[in-house]
């Protein structure tokens, strides 16, 4: 059987199936941690501020539920070939989050679990051949359906930390942290407002480096552990636990 071309690489059918299985398992684990953490909130604490300005924890939980449904739309697009955007519009997305955030803790949890289950089923049932189908994100970027699993993994871990409850970036498994870091760096790499950076991250059994070609002529060198690096790049924490002269970064989103 011929190799499958995906992005800039070639995959055998077996390798692609293994990658799908591994990414689905990673999303499932992150979701279990999310549900467990969110279950520890109550009617008072769920109304408290999250790490995101203007959003309570209930806003974050609602966003995660609607994002699961948005990712389901992308997988439906990949399966049918019929365009199903993540959200009807940005206004519809924001309105759904605002309305959903007013619900009780119990209803928030039921929505989060149900939407996460819908995504898990959609990912489980997508035929192997459809993971290479191209779909478009809300911003217009085109990705293979396989990367929807990475997108969901990033959303779950980052916004789980945003709940500011009992999980932080150092709790993310190293393999997941490396994947999330790679996606965050790639997002920054194409922006004109990001300074040039050379990043080095220690994952214990190996080190990983990334270069961001930004607007400055001389790149700043910053190194450290995965958790503090993620927190800094995402604007959730300062650079205090990192080494090097960390420049000020624009907002990630």
TrEMBL record:
Sections of the chain in a coiled coil: none
InterPro entries to which the protein is assigned, alphabetical: DinB/YfiT-like, Maleyloyr_isom, MDMPI_metal-binding, SCP2_sterol-bd_dom_sf
Pfam families linked to this entry: MDMPI_N
Molecular function GO terms recorded: isomerase activity; metal ion binding
Keyword RNA-binding: no
Keywords carried by this UniProt record: Isomerase, Pyruvate
UniProt domain Mycothiol-dependent maleylpyruvate isomerase metal-binding: residue ranges: 28-163
Record has Transport as a keyword: no
Name this polypeptide is given: Maleylpyruvate isomerase family mycothiol-dependent enzyme
